[in-house]
Amino acid sequence: MSGYLAVFVVVLIFVVIFQIAKASEYVSILKGEKKSREQSNRINGFLMIVFLVLGLIGVWWCHDLLEGRMLGESASVQGDGIDQLIRVTFIITMIVFVATQALLFWFAFKYQEKEGKTAFYFPHNNKLEVIWTVIPAIVLTVLVAFGIRHWLRITSEAPKDAMIVEVTGKQFNWIVRYPGKDGQLGRKNFKNINNEDNPVGQDWTDNLNTDDVISPDLHIVVGKNVKLIIGSRDVVHDVGLSHFRLKMDAVPGIPTTLWFTPKFTTAEMRKRTGNPDFVYELSCDQMCGSGHYSMKANIIVETQEEYDKWIAAQPTQYAQAHPAPAGTPAPAADSTKTAAAPADTTGKKVAMAETAAKH
Amino acid sequence: MSNEATLHNQDLAHHGHVEHGHGNGHDGHDHHHETFISKYVFSMDHKMIAKQFLITGIIWAIIGAFFSVLFRLQLGYPDATFPWLESILGHWAEGGRITAEAYYALVTMHGTILVFFVLTAGLSGTFSNLLIPLQVGARDMASPFMNMLSYWFFFLASVVMMSSLFVQTGPASGGWTSYPPLSALGDASIGSKIGMDLWLVSMAIFVVSSLLGSLNYISTILNMRTKGMSMTKMPLTIWAFFFTAVLGVLSFPVLLSGFVLLLFDRHGGTSFYLSELFVQGKVLPNEGGSAILYQHLFWFLGHPEVYIIILPAMGMVSEILAVSSRKPIFGYLAMVGSIFAITLLAFLVWAHHMFVTGLNPFLGAFFVLLTLLIAVPSAIKVFNWITTIWRGNIRFTPASLFSIGFVSTFISGGLTGIWLGNSAIDIHLHDTYFVIAHFHIVMGVSAFFGMFAGIYHWFPKMYGRFMNQTLGFIHFWITLVGAYLIFWPMHYEGMAGMPRRYFDYSNWASFNMFGGLNQFISFVVIIVFATQLLFVFNFFYSIFKGRKLTTPNPWDATTLEWTTPINPGHGNWPGEIPEVHRWAYDYSKDGKDFIPQTVPVSPDESQH
């Protein structure tokens, strides 16, 4: 009922506006074209200046209102450079924005048509044109130089000591693989993938694979360089790390990499933001299907001790894929019950996400 | 005296004149008798084809904009239910809330429709057709028949695209860019089933239409200019249409090749874009393809495409600002040069859409440089427009208001291009709402403003009547304010990292702080959409009931189209095609308000 009412009201408003518009057309014909043009020039010229003033106030107000909801200080060292570049670009573009908008609307107001006035015949002026070609060119050169410096630094080869973590996207969650004690990831082949016990297609004949750990969460160590090796099982995804200001596509068949240095642990961020529930999130930033909006992984930034403790408690994917035959003793990692418990949950979590994704 | 009589009286006073012009329009063409079919349907008159493009474009624009209202409802009011949604969308909106699948289909179709069917065909198709022969002084296009085919291929593409909305598995839903493997595998997304095939077929037909049109525009401009109309005497509109057509001819075929390969991957078992996939519990046999190859092919058109959209608007705005300021356009040659520079650079910047695909960083650095280089010709254009209105004598018509609005939004959206073009910043802002804000302001809103300006300005030429001015003023102010209210705050959402193409943000601790803002934006979207309907009503009402023209040159403009009769027939000029003696921008020269292009230069005239 209220729906019909809303439509009725809208139609009514339309009719009223139309009648006013129609009437004003009749009036302008009766008044003569010149007079009505004078009137509409006055009104629109005035609105130009109103728009300029209110618009600039609005821009300031919007900034004031939303600034607090931004991300705060970058959580990675690399992000600091990006933030700095953003700040410089913000200042430069804001100056140009205010200056040009002010000129545009001020001129529109000031030079509205008036009786007896004639326009100034001013077809070109080489000096002016050279000035406003050269100045933007210089400013842009500076921005390009700074930008490329940051860009090459961020995309450079990861330092040798960086820890390696593999992130694989699939519809619609992330699979994170850790190299284990040997620090090296085992070989994989997409033909080995199965949803039961081999989500990324590890090649079990490669010994490097025996200690690799798989988890739905990304655990990284504060202050330590981390190199992500990014891939996808199905469609193009994107590893979005908004707090770290970083991003990299996950492309099936073509591995990509991204390295960075986290600055704050999750616990530190909870204190900094005053939010006890703060959590770093890894989002998918490339349209990947109907569950795109739900493709999330938690990122836990922790100290080296916390990380070591966590990774030691994880069962290897190899152990899960090769359950010990009944009666014989299980491999070392699974021997204690306390360690086996999280193992099951991890495996289950991946499997659950699997079914959820299929919905 | 009744209101109707007021209007009628005006007509009577000039009736003879109107009749005269109209009658003469047919003189040169006594040999062919026009039937309803040949005049309105399979017309070869460029003016009628322009109207066909325009009205088809308007219908598409309403559909495309309505889709955005639907998905904005979801974004603004994620918890609310709207039972009427179920009445129109059926199981796609069960219980009055659109599903994720429907959301992605709506987003995809919104993009496809607005970018290609409205702002390419509807904008360039309309005004290139209408203005090229009229402003260069030709009786019609180089090939009127090809021109007719161009519209009917567009119509066919429209029919196919429209039909994809009604198939059971829904239309394409992988985003307007349709990246494979998502778009290649029906198992990966419901929208990649038959809907995607229809999308590809429709787009292929669309490319054909675009090529037929563009080749015609180029040959008409190069070969069919009237006596005296050297290239440097052409109005800037024609220069803009010329470079737009060049861009289209050189880049659309690349897009087509990308689509054909995608069709092969979908149905021919090839692996151009597919490699190492595991989808729906199955290992696929494809190996060795590159998903990135498609992105290169797509953006090789995709980037020039944004200039295909914006250049015609720039051309029309240049023209309208000069006419309404009663001043010559400032720096004519610089304006032509900057369009040329933009056209050239448009081909060399496509990979800036791919900074985070794992692109070679060294190569990325070049694309940063070339991308930011585009800001220079863009800056020249902006400063020249501002100088054009400086010390002018501006008449505020709806057309001139929209032109000023165009310059404003072009500045706002252009400046954020400097952010995104810098790859280091793009790493953070890529695929966030910042990008949405940027391209909607700079090529969505701006191009629409250019289109509105063109429609209000040349409506009298198309239909011999005016559109209602007061409605035009209301339309402009609400749209300008609304556009800024919608898109300005999105920059901040993007800076906070909020990703685009999300159906729902409520599960994200990082992005759920903008609920109130999203609701506000959606509310403004509804108001702005309603205002556009007001424009559509004004348009169609004015075709039949608008105030009639009383003089062939209502805006006191210098260009050739206003030397034709009020309702020109096929062939445009009843007698000889006028000869041109000067450039198109002699306004307020030597104390004369304006000097038409057809007036010979007198010996005592001042030089410029």
TrEMBL record, chain A:
Organism: Chitinophaga barathri
Name of this chain's protein: Cytochrome c oxidase subunit 2
EC assignment: 7.1.1.9
Chain positions covered by the region annotation Disordered: 319-359
Pfam families tied to this protein: COX2 (PF00116), COX2_TM (PF02790)
Catalytic activity: 4 Fe(II)-[cytochrome c] + O2 + 8 H(+)(in) = 4 Fe(III)-[cytochrome c] + 2 H2O + 4 H(+)(out)
Segments forming domain Cytochrome oxidase subunit II transmembrane region profile: 63-158
Cofactor: Cu cation
UniProt cross-references to PROSITE patterns, sorted A to Z: COX2_CUA, COX2_TM
TrEMBL record, chain B:
GO CC entries: membrane
Keyword Transmembrane helix found: yes
GO annotation, biological process: aerobic respiration; electron transport coupled proton transport; respiratory electron transport chain
InterPro entries: Cyt_c_oxase-like_su1_dom, Cyt_c_oxase-like_su1_sf, Cyt_C_Oxase_1, Cyt_c_Oxase_su1_BS
Keywords: Electron transport, Heme, Iron, Membrane, Metal-binding, Respiratory chain, Transmembrane, Transmembrane helix, Transport
Membrane topology category: Multi-pass membrane protein
Coiled coil feature spans: none
Protein name: Cytochrome c oxidase subunit I
Species in which this protein is naturally found: Chitinophaga barathri
Organism lineage: Bacteria, Pseudomonadati, Bacteroidota, Chitinophagia, Chitinophagales
